[in-house]
Structures are given as C-alpha cells and as structure tokens.
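QA checklist item 7 of 12: single-chain prediction sanity check.
[x] sequence parsed
[x] length recorded as 365
[x] structure emitted
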Amino acid sequence: MAALAIALPWLASVGGLGVVTPAIAESAKPAKKLTKEQAAAVAAYDTALAAFKKILAERRAQIDAGKTLPRLPGQAVYLARLKVMSTYKDLTDVLPSRIGRPNTFGVPPDHFDADIEPLIQEYADLFKIMQAPPAFAQSSKTPMKDAVDLGRAIARAKGADAAAAEAAGRISLAIFFAETNARQNIGNARSNTYKGSLQTGKSEDRNGRRKWAAIKKKVRARAPEVAARDDAEEARARKIDPRYNHWIAVRNGLMNAHADLFADIPAIARMLPDEIDQMKLFQLIQIVPTPTRAALKSGNVESYRISDARVMGFLRNNSIFTFGKVNRAKTSATYREILDAMWLFTPKFEKARDKFKAIQQGAPE
C-alpha cells in the first residue's frame, strides 16, 4: 500500500503533462451499458443498503433518546443486514466487476462490500446494547476457561479418554463463540425464548440440568474441583433464572445438546480430521440435531444429504445458504456443502481454537 501511495501523485503529474496513461485511457471509455438483469441487481442492492442505513439510524436514535424499543428490536436490523449481503451476492453474480477488496470480517468479497464496514460495526454496537445482560446476571471472571473445564469434565464423565476430553473442551469453547461471540449472560434481541451464554430456552435448560444431575457423581469423582465450583454456582443462582448464571448456562446447554456425542469424538475426528469442521458439526447439533445425528450414524458425514425443506429453512435462518438467489434456491445439500457454507462461523472458530491453546498454556483471559 505504501508503494501505491507514492505512485499515485506521480501518475497525476504525468497525466497533467498530456501523457495518457493506460488507467486514464480506460476511465475515458464510456461505461458499458448494463443489462436489464444487472440494472435490476444494482437497484435491489441500493434499495437494501438504504433500508439498512435507515434502520440502523432509527435504532441508534431510539437508544440515544432513551425511548422504549419495539418488541424484538434486533429482528428488523438483522433482516436488513441479511438483505444487504444477499442482494450484494446477487449483484456480484451478474456483475463480477463489483467484487471489491477483502474486508476485516473475513467475509468472501463477493458477499460483502468492504466500503460498508462502518455500518457493520454500528450493527454490532447496537446489538451489544440491545442484548446487554440484565443487572442480576451472574458473570464469571473466567468465562472461556469455564466452557473448557465443563467440556472436559463432561467428556470424562461420559467415558471419553484424555485426548477426546481436550477436544471436547475446545468444541465447548467454540459453541460459546458461535452462540454469543464469547459474551456471557446476554439476552437476545431477536427472540424472547433464547437467553444466556449458550442461548438456551427454558425447556433446553431444564433438560440439560436433568442430564447433569445424572452424571454429577461421576464428575465429582473425576474432577472434584469442577464439582465444587458447580456446587458454589448452584447456591449462587438459587433465586434467578439459571440461564443468567454463566457457569450453569454453559453446563446445561452442553448437557442438553452436545454431551452425548463427546465420547464419539475419536470417530468424528476420523470422518472430519479438520478441527474447524469438527466445531461446525457440533454447531449443527445445536441448529439441526436430528439430521446431524443421522449423518453421524451413516458413517460418512460429508456425503450425507439433507432434502427436508424445514431443515433447509433452519439452516438459512442461521446464515447457511442464506445469501443470494442461487443459495436460497437450494432444495438439498450434502453435509460437505453445508460445512463449506458455514464460512461465517469460521472466524469465530479460529478465535476459539487460538483461545483454547492459550488456556491450555495457562494464559489469563
């Protein structure tokens, strides 16, 4: 970039002397007329972008003025962001010249115009405000280590060996990153059902609690320090919704959805050697548990195909096959295609993996 900054003034001075450089000659050419399809794609993106800016400004004004927000205040903002990315993908599909530079979020450039990064930052800032933990929430000084410790302890209680238990710790931390960007005790600006560090509903929380009670003696025998911490957190959270106690929320969330598969991690790793793929698979247990378990039982996860419209809908609602007409038109997909389409999760899981390594080495959070 430094070389480019130096070169640009030189090009301008040469042009001023009457020398027509290739770049100047190219810009002097009349713009190529857009096809009807291209023009429609440009218009759709411009409309979506304008709507996104409008809803961001509206929510910011409401928050800054201390006004009461509408029910599920994040939903309209979220849908507007999806529309921007989806229409941009449609635009770059028919007009590849609109694909721009890489962006700081790691989103494929054909899905996202880096020029609107400030809007996405404002989007994230608004969600932090709208999903802030309630005043009574019980936080942890080591929320990431908690997720790792619980994953390890649960896995050992389920019969996993030491290596599989370490992988379970990594995967548990990954789920925390996937669900909340590793922010503890948050609410949910898009749902009145899902809350807390692992975004569980009340029935999921109860189911996880019941399953935890069934293995607590084994945990106490294998990891007494985890059991002691659990006793303390149970006493602490006696009078609140337990989903707003970070430790208990993570514990119950893992027990509800993931714990039964921790002992199967060696077999999963043989089918999916890549650690990021493993994290994605466990996130799919969170999103579409039944078909994902069926895929595992098939013995060949990657080739297992989903054709159920309802399941495809759940995937789209979680930013998988969501962006652009081509993806939205998909009626089926193999798990390999699904894993590849989970690129929005990849940066989160890479952060989780790095943080897990740091925790293993005893680094503070």
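[x] summary fact logged: The first strand starts at residue 305 and ends at 306.
[ ] second reviewer sign-off
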